[in-house]
Amino acid sequence: MPVNARKAAYLALTAWRRRGARPDMVLSTGPDSDPRERALAQTIVTGVLQNMFLLDHALLRYAGRDPDGLQPEVRDILRLSAYQLLFLDRVPVHAAVNEGVELAREFAPRAAGLVNAVLRKVAGQAGVLPPVEAASREEALSLRWSHPLWLVRELTALYGADDTEKMLMADNRPSPITAQVNTLKTTPARLREALESRRIGISDCPYFSDALYLTGTGALEEMDEFQKGLFYVQDAAARFAVLASGVRPGETVLDMCAAPGGKSFAAALQMENRGVIRAFDIHEKKAGLVARGAERLGIGIIEAAAGDAARFDPTLEHSADAVLCDVPCSGFGVIRKKPEIRYKDPSELDRLPRVQLNILKNASRYVKSGGKLVYSTCTVLKRENEDVIRSFLETDSGFEPVGFSLPAPFEGKKDGTVILPGQGGTDGFFICVLRKK
Fold first, then answer.
1. How far is CA 437 from CA 203, 397, 398, in A?
2. In the listed set 185, 215, 233, which residue is the last one of a domain according to the structure?
């Protein structure tokens, strides 16, 4: 069986299940001869990850089979096939069923008959999702939007059920690519003109005049405009963290957790490519990605190197006007772009606040008197955001939180700003600015 869209989707889902591989990275090595096959594979994988609990509910309701009791390979096949039957109205029913059976014959031959029988029952309900019945609103939200119950409960406790449902809905909606225009090489008008000839969907980003929302781009890395460094990709909320820092031309900036480089690039453009930006990542390979990105964009002030953000480097002490700490986090603010994140083992997240606090404490030693320390994450969990800031300020009285400017309707609050997923069309994010007294 050739690696068509459905087989590529199956391989990506099994790679994620078995070893935690990022499905989009697996798909990048999948079917590439036909853009339609590649797009269908991406649609299926994303759809399964966004709707896994609901798909399992449908398989139980319509076919009487609980996926939890099935061989993992069979479960993957049933999920991706059921997704096509229940969610994709342009996929012929017979194609979804027949190719699901073919996948079973290749990867779980003893279960081919079972797969055929189950999918034919689901096909009888094609396009009709089963009703969601649950004992509580939190359980209903978990099932309807396929987010773990523990996460729904934590978000509800923080933000209430209504805002939590808005977040979950936003997590399951497609997000445009936010292209930040490289003003060192072009203008928004010229980039827009170049992209319009490719039938790419383009709209203005409401928060930055030099940013565009793109849809239907295909593989970005293959675009001539990207290769020439005319733009880089960064969500508006992530750029807000650099905007909040207030960095100016001629200053010295440290980016402590820089890869893949978006905040360093944003800072360089905000500084008009004048000054010094030292960008660090604990992995040398990732630091190399930042360096190559800067070279592609024609940015000359970024010095990228491997470095542990939690380990003190005496050569950096009191050296920076601003230090950016976009720390490792749970990532629950970017689920719409990485749908698999929602299924993280919650026990593995317990160590994060300690790691985040250690980075913040170490980075604070690099800030000049009167300089700024910017703490940011792409999550909305209080234990990784406000609680970390509170713990830091309790042990270091040399810093004070300050307000900062953000585009409307957002507000740079003194105690930190939480941007919820989907609020204003951005990723979820947290930003807090601390000034050294």
1. 42, 9, 6
2. 233
pLDDT digits (tens, 9 = 90+) for 152-183: 999 999 999 999 999 999 999 999 999 999 99
Q: Looking at 205, 257, 325, 378, which residue is catalytic? A: 378
Q: Are 373 and 325 in contact (CB under 8 A)?
A: yes
Contact between 296 and 229 under an 8 Å Cβ cutoff? The reply is yes
pTM over the 0.90 mark = yes
Tokens (6 digits) for 283: 């992995």
User: Residue 18, class by beta-carbon neighbours within 10 Å (0-12 exposed, 13-18 middle, 19+ buried)?
Assistant: exposed
Which residue segment(s) compose the domain that 151 sits in? Answer: 137-171
Q: Is 432 a catalytic residue?
A: no
Shared domain check, 65 and 113: yes
Rounded CA gap, 353 and 175, in Å? 28
DSSP output for 44-59: HHHHHHHSHHHHHHHH
Residue 224 lies in a domain: yes
Residue 333 · residue 421 · CB < 8 Å: yes
Q: Is the bond preceding residue 2 a cis peptide, omega within 30 degrees?
A: no
Q: What Cα–Cα distance (Å) separates residue 117 from each residue in 63, 215, 288, 348, 395?
A: 8, 38, 51, 38, 63
